[in-house]
Each structure stands twice: as C-alpha cells, then as structure tokens.
C-alpha cells in the first residue's frame, strides 16, 4: 500500500509544504464554571511531533483542556500557545478554524449525508476540489478503505468509522491533533489494533498529539509522556516508566500498579512494619503514612523462605490466566495481602507459605489515619 505521504508528492515531484511539528503550550490555565474549578492552574507542554496522553477519572478536566486548546472554549485565566503564537490568553483569541489544530471526538461524528470520501475531504477547504478529492482518496487508501469512497458512513463497522474519522482528522495536516477518548467506542481487540494504527499515522504525519483517556494501559501504549490529572490539576507528568516506578502520589501509584495499602502512624521519622522500620521523608510524627506494596513485588515460597521472610497462610487462590492472585494472611499484617504470582507454581488454600518483600521496592505516601490505627 502506498503511504499517504508519497501520495502527496506533487506532479513535479516536489513535496508540498507540510505543517512543521509544533509545540503546544499551556501556561497556568484555569477554567471556572460558576462554582466549579474545572481547571486549576495547569501548565505543561506537548513537544513537537510527540504524543502526550492526559489520564484521569471522569470530571477531572481533561475534556475542558482539549476544548480550550481547540478554541471551542476560552480559559478563565492563563495562556495557550502554539510555538510562539498565543492562541488564547488575556487580550488574545485565535478562532478554532485559524489554529491549525484538529479535533477528533469520542463518537467519530461522521456526517451521515456525505459520502465517505466527502467526509475525509471536509477539512480540506483550502485545496481545489480535485486536489481535496485526491488527498482524501490517498488518505482512505492509507487506512485501507478507498473502496468505500463513494459509499455512506452507515455501512461501516465501528473500526472502519474510526479509521475514516482518523483519516478526516489527519488529512488537513493539522500541526496539533487533539483526540477525546478516541477508542472508547471500540471493543478491546479492535481497540489495540486501532491504537497501533493511529500511532503509525500520527508518526507519519509528524503531528503533535494530545489524547485524552481514562485507561492507564491505553495511555502507556500511546503516550510518549503521560499527564495524570485530578480535580482540575496536573498531578504528575512523565514517561510511563517514571510514573510507574516513582509515583508522586498514592493516586498515581494506584493507576499504574495493583498495590496493597497499609496505614501506619509515623513515629520518630519512620514507620514500624513487619518488613522493618522504614524511614519516611517529610512526614511529621503522629501523621499517617500509607505503605504501598505492589502485588507483583511480593515473592511467595512454599518452603521456609530466606532471611527476613514473613510466615503466612494462603486464604484463597484465583487463577487469572497468565497470573494467579493469592490472598495471604501474613504475620504482622492486620489484613490479608494480595499477591500476584506467575501462574505455574501452585499454592494450596490453607497451606503455610513465606513472603519476601523488598523494602526498597515499596512505596510510602502521606495518608489518613483511621480509627484504631
Ligand atoms: P473530564 O473530561 O475529565 O471528564 P470535564 O473537563 O468534562 O472532565 O469536566 C471537568 C469539570 O467541569 C466537571 O466537574 C464538569 O462537570 C465541569 N464542567 C465541564 N463543562 C462544563 C460546563 N459547560 N458548565 C458547567 N460545568 C462544566
């Protein structure tokens, strides 16, 4: 299959001007609706040609941020810039159609009364009709749907509609592409292949992309960097590995791994746990600290275990295909610990086991003291 980029090489062989990769910048952006602070001083940049995923629960402000970047919405304060050009800010506002920013919605939003080719050509108003048609066909060819060019969207499956929506969003070569939960309407298997296809298209086009999702795995698959949001704020921004290994907050840790959480009171700069006395940084005596132990970071053995191993009893075992989830009542812990092992090794309910937890691999966060702690 010819790539879309080669399709755009002009008749004389010269490549047409393409949008240079652009940097999208948010500077202290806030958006207030009545009593609701939908965005509260958000600052970050999406580097040219990179993909940044915004991850967070429903209502944390992700869509509002996209709408502000696209120009559908204005910030209450702060600025949005594309390279050095102010798109929105005090005394400045560039209309959505003048921004060079494309927006792709959750529900694909194809126009039912236009053919599939006309849908893709929709944003190519700057080109002649023939040229727009040629680019749209090239794009459809690129996503494997050129044979449907003359048909209407209702005949397409969900995945095909997604491809057309993607072709339509990328055809005008936007400097920045904004995508709001683009895969949420697709089933799991289709979602994975569409994620790969989308990444391929974005890389080919050199587009800078900001993608909203509430699936951590999707963010990890797609994003060069991930921005985690909560309550209108950007909590942490970084590569998936960094967010996974050094989460700044318990909230972030929970998104990227399954963890056991045990609360302790801080005493003399440390917490006393069954795996030893662990120092806590910057937490006052008497406050609560949550010890986070990843389910996969606990080693289970049937025998005696090595030095420092904790004795426990298997409460129940659930097989999850590649892994097993085992509940173990371990000595010194008030509640059972969840342990994820590689399937293969068998642990019997009621049997005695030993647990090894590497303190260096645990996480400690400020927490809330509950009654009885
Ligand atoms: P997300 O996309 O992360 O689910 P949104 O950006 O849609 O979150 O919403 C963030 C917050 O702002 C929510 O509390 C939402 O109810 C509120 N909000 C969004 N748009 C409006 C609006 N037009 N009017 C009033 N409140 C709004």
Alpha-beta content class: alpha+beta
Question: pLDDT average, as an integer?
Answer: 89
- Placed side by side, the strands forming the largest sheet appear as 7-8-9-3-10-11
Query: What is the C-level CATH assignment of the largest domain?
Result: Alpha Beta
Strand % is: 25-35%
- Output the CATH topology of the largest domain: Rossmann fold
DSSP E strands, number? 21
Ions, cofactors and other ligands present here are:
adenosine-5'-diphosphate
Q: Mind telling me which CATH architecture of the largest domain this is?
A: 3-Layer(aba) Sandwich
Low-confidence stretches: 1-17
Global Rg:
26 Å
Order of helices and strands: HEEEHEEEEHHHEHEHEEHHEEEEEEEEEE
Tally of DSSP helical segments: 9
Shape: globular
**What is the makeup of the main sheet?**
6 strands, mixed
Task: Explain this structure.
23% of the residues lie in helices and 34% in strands. It has 373 residues and is α+β, with helices and mostly antiparallel strands. It folds into 2 domains: 24-245, Rossmann fold, CATH 3.40.50; 259-367, Nucleic acid-binding proteins (OB fold (Dihydrolipoamide Acetyltransferase, E2P)). A 6-stranded mixed sheet has the order 7-8-9-3-10-11, sandwiched between helices. It binds adenosine-5'-diphosphate (ADP). Adenosine-5'-diphosphate is lined by residues 33, 36, 38, 56, 58-64. Residues 33, 36, 38, 56, 58-64 line the site of adenosine-5'-diphosphate.
């Amino acid at each position: 299959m010819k790539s879309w980029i080669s399709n755009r090489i002009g008749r004389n062989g010269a490549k047409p001007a393409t949008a240079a990769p652009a940097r999208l910048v948010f500077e202290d952006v806030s958006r207030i609706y009545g009593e609701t602070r939908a965005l509260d001083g958000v600052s970050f940049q999406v580097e040219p040609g990179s993909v940044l995923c915004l991850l967070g629960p429903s209502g944390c402000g992700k869509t509002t941020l996209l709408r502000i970047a696209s120009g559908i919405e204005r910030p209450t304060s702060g600025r949005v810039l594309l390279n050095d050009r102010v798109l929105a800010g005090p005394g400045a506002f560039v209309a959505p159609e003048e921004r060079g920013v494309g927006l792709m919605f959750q529900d694909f939003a194809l126009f039912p009364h236009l053919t599939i080719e006309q849908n893709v050509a929709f944003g190519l108003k700057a080109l002649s009709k023939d040229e727009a048609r040629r680019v749209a066909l090239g794009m459809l060819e690129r996503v494997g749907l050129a044979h449907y060019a003359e048909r209407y969207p209702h005949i397409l499956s969900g995945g095909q509609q997604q491809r057309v929506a993607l072709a339509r969003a990328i055809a005008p070569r936007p400097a920045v592409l904004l995508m709001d939960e683009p895969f949420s309407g697709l089933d799991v298997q289709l979602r994975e292949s569409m994620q790969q296809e989308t990444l391929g298209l974005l890389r080919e086009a050199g587009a800078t992309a900001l993608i909203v999702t509430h699936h951590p795995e999707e963010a990890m698959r797609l994003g060069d960097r991930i921005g985690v949001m909560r309550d209108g704020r950007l909590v942490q921004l970084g590569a998936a590995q960094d967010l996974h290994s050094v989460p700044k907050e318990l909230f972030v840790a929970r998104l990227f791994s399954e963890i056991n959480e045990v609360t302790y009171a801080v005493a003399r700069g440390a917490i006393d746990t069954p795996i030893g006395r662990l120092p806590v940084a910057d937490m006052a005596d008497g406050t609560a600290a949550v010890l986070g132990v990843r389910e996969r970071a606990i080693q289970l053995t049937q025998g005696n275990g090595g030095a420092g191993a904790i004795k426990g009893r298997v409460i129940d075992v659930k097989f999850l295909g590649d892994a097993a989830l085992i509940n173990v009542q371990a000595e010194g812990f008030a509640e059972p610990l969840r342990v994820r092992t590689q399937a293969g090794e068998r642990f019997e309910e009621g049997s005695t086991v030993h647990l090894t937890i590497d303190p260096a691999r645990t996480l400690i966060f400020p927490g809330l003291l509950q009654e009885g702690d």
